[in-house]
Amino acid sequence: MKEIWIQKNNFIGASTGQIHCPFETRDGNKVGRIVPYIYRDLELREKPVSARLQITALGIYEPWINGKQVGSRYFAPGWTDYRKLVYVQTLDVTAYLNCGHNRFGAVLGDGWFAGNLSLCRKTTYGDRQPELAMVLKLHYADGTEETVGSDESFRFLESNVRYADFYMGQWTDHNYPGPEKCFAAGGPAGFPVRLGQGTDGALLPDYEMAVREERRMQTVSIRQMGDSLVLDFGQNFVGIPELVLRAKRHTAVTAWYGEMLNPDGSVYTANLRGAASVDRFVCAGEGEECFRPSLTFHGFRYMQLRLSGAELIRIEGIVLTSILPKRGEFVCDNPMVNQLYSNIIWGMRGNFVDLPTDCPQRDERLGWCGDTQVFCPTAMYNLDCRNFYKKYLRNVRDTINEDGAPYDLAPYIYGLGYGTAAWADAIVVIPYQHYRFYGDKSVIYENLEAMEGWVEYQNRTSRDYIRPDEGYGDWLSVRLNETPRDMLGTAYFAYTAQLLSELCGEIGETEKEQYYKSLSQKVKDAFHRHYVQEDGFIQSDSQCAYLLAIGFSLVDGALADRVAHRLVESIHKDDDHLTCGFVGISLLLPVLSKIGRNDLAYKILLQDTYPSWGYSIKNGATTIWERWNSYTKEHGFGDVAMNSFNHYSLGSCGQWFSEYMCGIQPTKPGFAGVRIAPQPDPQLRIRRACASYQTEKGTVRSSWQANEDGFCFVVGMPDGLSGVFSYGGREYPLKNGQNTFTFGKECGPK
What are the residue boundaries of the structural domains of the chain, listed by start? Predict the structure, then answer.
């Protein structure tokens, strides 16, 4: 572990003036603080041979030295429960310092710590202003060292950012000096800082899962509408604009953002609820002026811009996300399925902003555990999420109450519940999937106590192993509350006990392995007695109920066959359309493949009438929607109280593309061994598909193509990786390099 130099007494703040936001904030919360520049002047006798800056904040910061921003990170140090944990970043700043006069410091924004935050608005972590802490360590050629830590010798200036908030937006006024001038050596003199309270929580080295600019978006159309422009970037994404304006002094340009358009062509903002999501840019009248609101972010495809006489010279959209290495890819010959895959990736990109959020645009943007756990296999098939999820799991552990129950979301905010089925279960499901994909036993050790605490909490609070009728159920299913909540909770109880048993076995805890295996079996037996009839009928007759029973292996043998038959019947009753919500949808396609009904899996996948993935795509979706009916042609927009158009949970089907359609499956933790078991479309509605996954040994690639006589499969295997190819009930060893298999229509090898 890296040494942490920052101490509690290094936290300082700035008492800038409060200011009224110049635009409507919907909930009336119009008061904000002027963003400060906090700095220290430093005289150096010579240029150091090495200089490192450790920095963190209760809030968000941008470091600057001698008029230049250090690095390209947004929203550091990230979101945690600041009362329990704050991450510290260490930066090499040698190149930024000079012999003689220097000035170093940071822009300090409210961020998650002191800004508006869901139900609690600005008081989640107490009614406090943001604080900054930094320590600069200098090493000289003669071997001497110098350390400068933040204290009362630092000073501050009011910035040109007059207001900045994640939900409300940012107000930047170029008639006030910018950071290039204020952080320049010999820049203007400021005012004394105040000592901060700091945190009693841990200060830990950063996971370095930084939010950065990932790409830039160009507009696909700009349309005049009254006194404003409506800009379309062609893709729903998360980020900020960068625009260049030319205008007279004090000209104010206002921008607001949305994911859809109203019938009259204006930007649709009703679903943002209490979030204003408005930026204001005030010009200094000094030629071309560039604005980039870097202390906020928006979820949008469309931007409406009231220029008030200003000239728009240039505009781009900056895509912001936690930059994670790419692991997998997928493509097929069906344009709608390719668009669905794109929607899944863009939804993940937009909601992986420091932590996995549910949505990125309205007054929520929270790390809901249920959304995260159902989607994590899809994420792991496509991105290297090992540190991203380890960081998130630390946030989850910090929410656990004294009874062992995790909170519904992480980091903690006031006003929600503990121990909710399918949400609290994230503390077991995510470590299990993490170990499956990455083979890193540390994730088991780090979370073992929390996993055991949650399973034992379920054991204590169940009656005859049946969970209580509470929670969210199969959230946002087509028919609300169709699946009994006690049934769903009991299924997850059995499932997480089984997963915990397997993880205990992986680290040699054999007694615990057997104990949790036995407990899981007791819960399965209770599930069978309480909900399942011998003819396979399960109470409620919902798709989700049958999916839970099969997907979590709660039934077996002939009974499992009868339950599978009931599942198929329930799907046929809905004209071969899905009806499940967040929980059931993650199991739907894998379970259909598991029971040998790929024909039905592909049919559901390719539907384009309501409810389906294809229906949203037919109506212009470029990300996954929160609801199956977020928008319908018949009824227009869904309930604005909860209607996100970038909500990745229902995109958990992405796992099936890699794991079943193309069949890339780990046989050992961390993909130390693989099984390639592709399951093509038996009706040939999709005739070609290809997926890849980058293992530690190299990239595995699986592709298939239908021809007149049957199927041709090509598997690429990297050196040093062992695997088998499985098709038609038989397995074939795979050699390193390219492997080609051809099968006739009746599954026989040719």
Answer: 8-209, 214-322, 328-661, 666-744
Q: Beta-strand (E) ranges in 507-651?
A: 631-632, 636-637
CB 280 within 8 A of CB 253: yes
Note the pLDDT tens digit of each residue in 140-163.
Answer: 999 999 999 999 999 999 999 999
* Sequence-distant (≥ 6) Cβ neighbours of residue 724 within 8 angstroms: 667, 674, 675, 676, 731, 732, 733, 734
- Whose CA is closest to 316, among 191, 179, 432, 216? 216
Clarify whether 145 is annotated catalytic: no
pLDDT tens profile 439-473: 999 999 999 999 999 999 999 999 999 999 999 99
Largest CA distance in the chain: 86
Does 626 participate in catalysis according to the annotation?
yes
**Eight-state DSSP code of residue 383:** B
Pairing of strands 60-65, 68-69: antiparallel
Structure tokens at 331: 């493509």
> Which one from 482, 509, 626, 659 is the annotated catalytic residue?
626
Homologous superfamily of 214-322: Galactose-binding domain-like (2.60.120.260)
pLDDT of amino acid 123: 72
Annotated catalytic residue, options 316, 364, 509, 659:
364
How sure is the predictor about 306, in pLDDT bands with cuts at 50, 70 and 90? very high
Dihedral, 116, 121, 122, 127 alpha carbons, nearest 10: -170
Taking all residues of the chain, what is their mean pLDDT, rounded to a whole number? 95
- Output the six-digit token pair for 211: 């939010």
Decide if 266 contacts 306 (C-beta within 8 A).
Answer: no
Which pLDDT does position 27 carry in this prediction?
Answer: 52
**Cα(5)–Cα(7) distance, rounded to whole angstroms?**
6
Contact 277, 239 (CB under 8 A): no
pTM of the model: 0.96
pLDDT tens-digit profile of 158-212?
A: 999 999 999 999 999 999 999 999 999 999 999 999 999 999 999 999 988 899 9
Domain covering 666-744, topology: Maltose phosphorylase, domain 3 (2.60.420)
Find all residues with CB under 8 Å of 499, minimum gap 6, and list them: 428, 429, 432
Separation CA 730–CA 749 (nearest Å): 10
